């Protein structure tokens, strides 16, 4: 008993940040750890316009690890928030979409937690652990949530032989399928778990490849040459995450002629230390009102690369409405700019960067057409190609691999001042964020640039290498159809690189 | 693995002692030192940078941080991180020498909040509860204190028996951050207040928030959940939870000890012995050694009984005086020493379990009135614990309060699966003396087995 009491003292050793492990405390709560948020204009097959939003959690899932499988956490409320109109600048959600999961087992008299045999169809007799979820929509701070979907199935994780249909030639020994261009080409498990409702919403949640790619190791090793032995190195290569993707019909959030803001959060239930006698055992159903927010994310890299260690957890616990007062200084005076060798003029009063990050919502101009989408780099393995003109965005347009190609995506945005505001082309981050946007390169280039005067943007310092971190594509091709995120990597056949 | 740890334990302590001695011997020549602080910065760095054996992920992280610090000896964030790694090592191995190492890291890493937090944590781990409380009080008055500051304060208050003060502090803690560590704390508080189902509910939340990236706390939470489940007679669930704990940390000592309880319940004393051998080899706590002695006795392994008793007698007082005092009192060995150890513990750690230890050792020493008074304090929070009830029954009987004694004995019998075999046997004897018929057969079975074994031994 002495040991029991003494051992209660433990808490996690503070681990300093890296991408996907943004705040010290959330690092050790992976199911609630938001890794990336995506938000971009899309069209469905019939041309109906959508805002596609996605939230990825649970960083660094080693594919196929067992027996403690990665799953969504039944005790976490996952939310994706959309701000419209004046709420964008205020950092306040106009509409919030909540995702709640429930896990069940077909057989608990076994050590085989996830699979009892080969899963031929989602939730068949061989899928022991099954997750289902409910999606709600809440408008404004005080209205009651409306259920959009209930009892939706989550597909199994990609183990290998027991989940062959995720993989090339439906063979569990082969690597995961590359991204496709047509819905009918999606793998069986993904197809079986995409659900639409009569109001036009479409949803998917499950294990996917981690679509983020970058040499994070070098950044936090303060090596901005991104060169040396074992380089280039994609720190997220070979890992999966869990991803929720929601297609929101623009007709339901005010149409196309607007800029919206998107961020996501994770929360855990509020707890009373001592329960009221007779009050019942369990807390109320988990909604925003009786939860504690433990993490949030809008734009990529803000908390990881701009916010100081001492405030990282505070960032996760607060709302974007507090960003102007609490976190704007980090965007105005980025420590990373100084680390990159920029002079004082370019590492202070960066109102252009504050325009992107404060409040920390991904701002999406919905007046453009659907975003050009990334496919895959490995067409030999069957990947769909990138959309014509898709490019890892540069602030000044183009990229290292665009010579002779179609006109590349250039950041034309009406959202942030300073970005050559034509506002006509579908964009990528920081005008929305697509799967495939090379956000590290864009962020570094933004730091090296000076966009404070829209009439004459300048490049304060050229990057040592136009490819910046030299990691310019994901380890597997993305799907160019809903749910856009890439197939989860095979536990039996994958590599880290 | 047990062999490595047995080797490491003296290694770590000896290293610290040697450096301390060296430092004391040369201390007067170094005028820059604080006279009250015998170690120089160089000595401290030498101590924390001493190579450590072991090859698990924690050891690799430890070595990586040491390399970083060697390259830049002023790298305070890395020194602080190293301090927390030493804390993790202390928890995994039960070797307090690692806490000393962590303390040196805290000394070297300055006086900021993060260093203070580490310092306060170490104070708490080394049972300097008043000092830990002082540090925590300072931390919670700073701007935007984190949940860890409230956790430290709540822990320090709870260990000192200030449960009423700890409740709002823990509430603030969990309002700031629901996570494994905060759920586990509140679960324990609920358990102390007698709310077993509420404790189980929160410990379930704790395990579900665990991460294989930080496996020891997850293993710990699963072990605690199993304990609550066993207390609630959910044996199958308890067994499942123990298995989960052992998936997170192979041969995790606390889980192996709990597994042995389940094995004893299933009538498998040999398996219990195997489990406890592993637990004791890693963390030689008196509670585990006592359980091993009992299991070995049931299994008829008299050599192991003698050997373990010898080890317990040699180091029990330094490893965990409170548990050792309970063991001594339960076996009528040196009751005066047992009482003194328990009283010393109570002077710094005034929680219900220390009151219970004083009460129990007072009874063994023939001080029935003191036993009764302290038992009242032990029961004051409403804690539902088999050992507390069993002790309360015997003390009430000794005090001539037969009706009260029968009540406590019956309550203890209802939770007898939580007791060690020797305690179950004595509980049955006490019940018999009071004319109480305990329906649960396992008590009788255990008593019979213990008696048969004792007979064979004679």
Can you walk through the features of this model?
The complex is a heterodimer of chains A (497) and B (458). Chain A has 497 residues and is an alpha+beta fold. Chain A is 14% helix and 22% strand. Chain A is built from twelve helices and 14 strands. Chain A has helices spanning 2-7, 86-90, 188-192, 216-220, 302-305, 309-317, 323-326, 328-332, 335-339, 344-347, 351-357, 439-448; strands at 34-43, 49-61, 76-83, 95-105, 129-139, 146-153, 195-196, 202-209, 240-249, 259-269, 291-297, 362-365, 449-450, 458-459. In chain A, the strands form three sheets. In chain A, strands 3, 4, 5, 6, 10, 11 and 12 form a seven-stranded antiparallel β-sheet that branches. Chain A has a five-stranded antiparallel β-sheet with strand order 1-2-9-8-7, with no helix packed on it. In chain A, a hairpin with a 6-residue loop joins strand 5 (129-139) and strand 6 (146-153). Chain A starts with a helix and ends in a 38-residue tail after the last strand. Chain B contains 25 helices and no strands. The longest helix of chain B is centred in the N-terminal third of the chain and has 25 residues, at 2-26. Residues 1-34 and 452-458 of chain B have low confidence and may be disordered. The chains are: A alpha+beta (497), B mainly alpha (458). At the A-B interface, helix 1 and helix 6 of A face helix 4, helix 6, helix 8, helix 9 and helix 10 of B.
Give the helices and strands, then pairings.
The complex is a heterodimer of chains A (497) and B (458).
Chain A: H1 2-7, E1 34-43, E2 49-61, E3 76-83, H2 86-90, E4 95-105, E5 129-139, E6 146-153, H3 188-192, E7 195-196, E8 202-209, H4 216-220, E9 240-249, E10 259-269, E11 291-297, H5 302-305, H6 309-317, H7 323-326, H8 328-332, H9 335-339, H10 344-347, H11 351-357, E12 362-365, H12 439-448, E13 449-450, E14 458-459
Antiparallel strand pairs in A: 1-2, 2-9, 3-4, 3-10, 4-5, 5-6, 7-8, 8-9, 10-11, 10-12, 13-14
Chain B: H1 2-26, H2 41-48, H3 57-71, H4 76-93, H5 97-108, H6 113-125, H7 129-140, H8 147-159, H9 163-176, H10 180-192, H11 196-208, H12 215-231, H13 235-248, H14 253-265, H15 269-282, H16 286-299, H17 302-319, H18 321-330, H19 335-348, H20 352-364, H21 368-379, H22 386-398, H23 402-414, H24 421-433, H25 441-457
Helix pairs in contact in B: 1-5, 2-5, 3-4, 4-5, 4-6, 5-6, 6-7, 6-8, 7-8, 8-9, 9-10, 10-11, 10-12, 11-12, 12-13, 12-14, 13-14, 14-15, 15-16, 16-17, 17-18, 18-19, 18-20, 19-20, 20-21, 20-22, 21-22, 22-23, 23-24, 24-25
């Amino acid at each position: 008993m002495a040991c029991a009491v003494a051992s209660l003292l433990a808490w996690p050793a503070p681990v300093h940040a890296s991408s996907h492990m943004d705040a010290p405390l959330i690092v050790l709560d992976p199911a609630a750890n938001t890794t990336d948020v995506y938000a971009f204009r899309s069209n469905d097959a019939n041309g109906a316009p959508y805002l596609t939003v996605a939230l990825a959690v649970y960083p660094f899932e080693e594919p196929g690890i067992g027996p403690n499988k990665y799953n969504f956490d039944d005790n976490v409320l996952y939310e994706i928030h959309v701000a419209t109109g004046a709420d964008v600048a205020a950092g306040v959600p106009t509409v919030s979409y909540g995702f709640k999961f429930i896990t069940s087992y077909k057989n608990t008299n076994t050590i085989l937690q996830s699979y009892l045999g080969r899963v031929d169809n989602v939730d068949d007799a061989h899928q022991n652990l099954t997750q289902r979820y409910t999606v709600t929509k809440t408008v404004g701070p005080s209205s009651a949530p409306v259920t959009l979907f209930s009892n939706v199935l989550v597909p199994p994780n990609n183990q290998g032989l027991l989940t062959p249909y995720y993989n090339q030639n439906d063979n569990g020994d082969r690597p995961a399928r590359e991204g496709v261009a047509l819905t009918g080409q999606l793998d069986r498990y993904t197809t079986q778990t995409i659900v639409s409702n009569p109001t036009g919403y479409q949803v998917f949640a499950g294990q996917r490849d981690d679509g983020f790619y970058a040499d994070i190791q070098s950044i936090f090793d303060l090596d901005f040459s991104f060169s040396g032995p074992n380089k280039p190195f994609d720190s997220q290569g070979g890992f999966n995450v869990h991803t929720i993707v929601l297609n929101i019909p623009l007709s339901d959030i005010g149409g196309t002629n607007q800029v919206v803001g998107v961020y996501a959060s994770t929360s855990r239930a509020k707890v009373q230390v001592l329960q009221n006698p007779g009050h019942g055992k369990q807390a109320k159903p988990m909604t925003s009102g009786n939860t504690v927010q433990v993490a949030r994310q809008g734009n990529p890299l803000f908390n990881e690369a701009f916010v100081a260690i001492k405030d990282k957890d505070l960032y996760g616990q607060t709302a974007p409405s507090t960003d102007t007062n609490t976190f704007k200084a980090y965007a105005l005076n980025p420590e990373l700019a100084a680390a990159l060798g920029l002079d004082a003029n370019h590492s202070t009063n960066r109102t252009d960067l504050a325009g992107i990050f404060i409040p920390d919502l991904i701002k999406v101009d919905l007046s453009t057409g659907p975003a050009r989408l990334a496919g895959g780099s490995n067409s030999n393995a069957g990947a769909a190609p990138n959309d014509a003109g898709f490019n890892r965005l540069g602030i000044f347009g183009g990229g290292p691999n665009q010579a002779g190609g179609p006109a590349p995506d250039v950041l034309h945005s009406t959202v942030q001042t300073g970005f050559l505001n034509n506002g006509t082309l579908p964009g990528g981050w920081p005008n929305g964020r697509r799967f495939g946007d090379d956000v590290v390169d864009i962020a570094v280039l933004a730091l090296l640039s000076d966009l404070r005067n829209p009439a004459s943007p300048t490049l304060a310092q050229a990057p040592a290498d136009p490819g910046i971190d030299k990691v310019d594509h994901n380890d597997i091709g993305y799907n160019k159809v809903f749910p856009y995120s890439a197939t989860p990597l095979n536990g039996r056949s994958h590599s880290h690189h | 693995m047990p062999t490595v740890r047995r080797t490491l334990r003296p290694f770590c302590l000896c290293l610290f002692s040697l450096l301390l001695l060296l430092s004391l011997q040369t201390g007067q020549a170094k005028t820059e030192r604080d006279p009250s602080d015998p170690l120089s910065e160089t000595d401290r760095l030498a101590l924390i940078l001493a190579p450590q054996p072991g090859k698990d992920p924690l050891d690799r992280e430890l070595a990586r941080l040491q390399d970083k610090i060697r390259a830049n000896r002023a790298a305070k964030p890395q020194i602080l991180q190293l301090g927390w790694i030493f804390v993790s090592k202390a928890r995994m191995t039960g070797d307090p020498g690692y806490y000393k190492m962590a303390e040196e890291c805290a000394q070297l890493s300055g006086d900021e909040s993060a260093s203070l937090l580490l310092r306060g944590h170490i104070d708490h781990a080394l049972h300097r509860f008043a000092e830990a409380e002082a540090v925590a009080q300072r931390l919670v008055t700073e701007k935007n204190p984190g949940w860890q500051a409230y956790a430290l304060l709540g822990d320090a208050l709870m260990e000192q028996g200030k449960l009423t003060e700890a409740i709002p502090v823990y509430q603030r803690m969990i309002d700031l951050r629901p996570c494994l560590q905060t759920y586990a704390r509140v679960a324990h508080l609920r358990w102390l207040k007698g709310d077993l189902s509420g404790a189980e509910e929160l410990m379930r939340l704790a395990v579900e928030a665990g991460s294989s990236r930080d496996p020891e706390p997850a293993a710990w939470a699963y072990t605690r959940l199993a304990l609550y489940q066993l207390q609630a007679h959910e044996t199958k669930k308890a067994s499942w939870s123990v298995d989960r704990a052992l998936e997170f940390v192979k041969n995790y000592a606390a889980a192996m000890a709990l597994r042995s309880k389940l094995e004893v319940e299933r009538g498998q004393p040999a398996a219990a012995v195997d489990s406890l051998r592993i637990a004791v080899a890693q963390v030689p706590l008196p509670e585990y050694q006592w359980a091993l002695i009992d299991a070995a006795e049931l299994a008829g392994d008299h050599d192991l009984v003698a050997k373990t008793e010898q080890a317990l007698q040699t180091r029990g007082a330094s490893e965990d005086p409170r548990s050792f005092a309970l063991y001594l009192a339960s076996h009528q060995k040196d009751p005066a020493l047992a009482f003194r150890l328990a009283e010393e513990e109570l002077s710094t750690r005034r929680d219900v379990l220390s009151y219970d230890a004083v009460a129990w050792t007072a009874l063994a020493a023939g001080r029935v009135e003191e036993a009764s008074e302290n038992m009242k304090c032990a029961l004051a929070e409403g804690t539902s614990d088999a050992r507390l009830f069993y002790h309360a029954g015997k003390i009430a009987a000794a005090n001539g309060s037969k009706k009260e004694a029968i009540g406590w004995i019956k309550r203890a019998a209802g939770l007898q699966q939580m007791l060690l075999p020797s305690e179950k046997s004595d509980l049955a004897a006490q019940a018999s003396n009071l004319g109480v018929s305990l329906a649960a057969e396992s008590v009788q079975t255990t008593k019979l087995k213990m008696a048969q074994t004792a007979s064979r031994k004679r």
